[in-house]
Amino acid sequence: MDLPHLKVRGLSLRWVAPRLRAALRGAGHEGFSKYVGLDVHQETIAVAVADTAGEVRYLGEIVSTPEAIAKLVGQIKRGTGRLAFCYEAGPCGYTIFRQLQELKQECQVVAPSLIPKKPGERVKTDRRDALSLARLHCVGELSLVWIPDHAQEALRDLTRACEDIKHLRHQAKQRLLSFLSRHGHRYAGRSRWTQAHCRWLERIKFARPEQ
């Protein structure tokens, strides 16, 4: 939210607003001592940590396995309070989110398209993304996504599978019709993929066995 440039008792709201937002976020994040940004990939996870003092550090990469994540939690948590993790929603799903919950750690999954970006910042690296996630999570600037439970995710998987099958079936039909058209076979009936069309397909013969 961008506040207008007004004066209140000699102070500009452009100066006051960031500090007010920071104070409100601090109240919402009370109890967390470190904010961990995870740039998650299929094989590796880049890790960065921001603390409440404003320091942001890059810790490096770990392998993307439950054992490595559990070890990471133990290393970061050693001698500190509660941790708050975050990572971008993507093809790796919610496995890491659920594992961190089982480890009694706070975790948020972030909407990638809504992550604030600096003007002109085009070069993306795992290190930079992890540092940005940790920093933005610490100040409450990330937009979160809704996390389905196991039953909801299973239903979503089934729906996606049905849509994928419909798409593949449509592609297969188009390829078959294109193949037949290249060899001069064109259906003269009114509608395709009816019983009459299927009987027409069964009667088509080719000279070469490869076809």
Automatic annotation (TrEMBL):
GO biological process: DNA transposition
The organism's place on the tree of life at top rank: Bacteria
Ranges for domain Transposase IS110-like N-terminal: 36-182
Family annotation (Pfam families): DEDD_Tnp_IS110
Gene Ontology MF: a single term: transposase activity
Protein name: Transposase IS110-like N-terminal domain-containing protein
Organism, as annotated: Paraburkholderia humisilvae
